[in-house]
Design goal:
Helices cover about 40% and strands about 15% of the residues. It has four helices and four strands. The chain has a four-stranded antiparallel β-sheet. Helix 2 crosses helix 3.
Length: about 180
């Protein structure tokens, strides 16, 4: 009788799904977090690119007087939605291109903010003249959504754990009337 019960217990399939579930459920959640992280990064990148395009149009046409770094950041952040603390984590540069040598007048890398540094940003803001080719570079520092998925661990982050989203555009200023 006891032997028969042991045989029946050994053949029972109760709990057979538990082991595969324990193995596959964490992998499923990692894939889910990876997809959510990619979605948020892509969404914010599209928002940044659109905001830079809108601000570039204002600069190109000369319809706005965006002569300081704070005014440029405010213009980009106004065109950008769903991004908390945009102006505190944004850096924008505008400078002309030397069309004789086709080289940038600002050969430094893209300037980004760093919340752990006490160093004051000194971005170049030179809107250029009439019919002049100009580069606009924007850098937005964002924290990852989570820190458990492989994507957020693979991203290059600064000391505060933020990664950089960048947008670069080149445009030619429209002719402006001289007074």
């Amino acid at each position: 009788m006891l032997l028969r019960r042991l045989r029946l217990a050994a053949r029972a399939e109760d709990g057979a799904v538990t082991i595969p579930t324990v193995i596959w459920l964490p992998i499923f959640f990692l894939i889910l977090f990876f997809g959510l992280e990619m979605m948020f990064i892509s969404f914010r990148q599209v928002l940044l690119d659109h905001a830079v395009d809108v601000t570039t149009r204002e600069l190109r046409l000369g319809t706005a007087t965006l002569d300081t770094h704070d005014e440029l950041k405010a213009a980009v952040c106004t065109a950008m939605h769903f991004v908390p603390d945009c102006e505190a984590n944004m850096a924008v540069e505008v400078f002309p291109v030397d069309t004789d040598t086709w080289s940038l007048t600002n050969t430094n890398g893209i300037l980004c903010t760093d919340s752990t540094s006490t160093e004051v940003l000194n971005p170049e803001i030179n809107r250029g003249g009439s019919n002049q080719m100009v580069v606009m570079r924007a850098c937005l520092k964002m924290p990852p959504l989570t820190t458990i998925d492989p994507l957020s661990r693979a991203m290059m982050t600064d000391a505060s754990g933020r990664f950089a989203l960048t947008s670069v555009t080149v445009f030619v200023n429209e002719p402006r009337a001289t007074n």
